[in-house]
Amino acid sequence: MTALYAVLGHPIQHSLSPRLHAAAFRAEKRDAVYEAHDCDLADLPHVLPELEARGVVGVNLTAPLKVEALSCCTSLTGEATLAQAINTIRYDGLGSRGHNTDGEGLAVFLERHGVDLMGARVVFIGRGGSVRGIVPVFHRRGVATMTAIVRSERGPIDGVRLVKDTSALADATLVIRAWPASAGPLFADEVPPEAVAIDLGYHPAITPWVAAVRARGVKAANGLGMLIEQALLAQEFWHGTMPPRSALEEAVGWSDPFTA
Predict the structure, then answer these.
(1) Domain ranges of the chain
(2) Which of 12, 27, 63, 195 pairs as cysteine with 247 (C-beta 3.0–4.6 A)?
């Protein structure tokens, strides 16, 4: 039987996850399909059981579902427990196991491109579900400090200083934008030229925020590299094997996002 996989989020039409995972299935000769479902918070308690009833093997989750989906899983990995957010679920007939690949995906991408996290001074613009997944991994990688610029200081994240002002940007060595694209090039003119900047969004390929910080001389990239690493880690979580990175890169026309 053809195995079923899916990605859920809202909006979802821009997602490159179906293309990446289809390439992974071809590379490993798996008989599988990967569907994209537009799903908001109100839909989640209904959509996941419907997919499980159809025999789904694996699910990916994107905004705004990563925190709320915790309660939909029968067990969690250590990474998901630390993050208190999930972006990947595995179904095995005994239940659903939630996992988080956000932090490891971003860390691997950065390290592959020569960005050293040890001693980094990290500033997040926003604090969504992706940030919750990134923080525990960055702790393990030895970052020096983590600050999040937020609208409200409610809902603390362990190890992250929540602030409403932008003063922390002055000393940042790594700035990660985790706010919706609709907010525009928020605080781009305050990112230090010597910092590295990552926009977790990847549509369009050069987001307005990436364009704005590059205009200041900042080394900046979108979130596609992180997405590729997340897809590889999800495949490993589902199957115990990791497809060749080159197959996924070819599927999305990969080029170095720091220079594209």
Answers:
(1) 3-100+225-251, 103-222
(2) 27
Residues shown for the chain: 260
Rounded CA gap, 193 and 50, in Å?
Answer: 48
Structure tokens at 151: 């609208």
Give the architecture-level CATH label for domain 3-100+225-251.
Answer: 3-Layer(aba) Sandwich (3.40)
Closest CA to 199 of 187, 166, 143: 187
Looking at residue 260, its pLDDT comes to 64
pLDDT by position in tens, the chain (length 260):
899 999 999 999 989 999 999 999 999 999 999 999 999 999 999 999 999 999 999 999 999 999 999 999 999 999 999 999 999 999 998 899 999 999 999 999 999 999 999 999 999 999 888 999 999 999 999 999 999 999 887 778 999 999 999 999 999 999 999 987 777 788 999 999 999 999 999 988 899 999 999 999 999 999 999 999 999 999 999 999 999 999 999 999 988 888 76
Best CATH choice for the domain 103-222 from the list 3.20.20.210, 3.65.10.10, 3.40.440.10, 3.40.50.720: 3.40.50.720
Give the span between the Cα atoms of 238 and 215, in whole angstroms. Answer: 41
Catalytic-labelled residue, pool 29, 66, 164, 219? 66
pTM here is: 0.95
Torsion of CA 45, 81, 77, 103, to 10 degrees: 100
Identical topology for domains 3-100+225-251 and 103-222: yes
Burial class (CB in 10 A: 0-12, 13-18, 19+), 119: exposed
Whether 66 is catalytic: yes
The answer to whether the Cα torsion of 230, 231, 235, 236 is positive or negative is negative
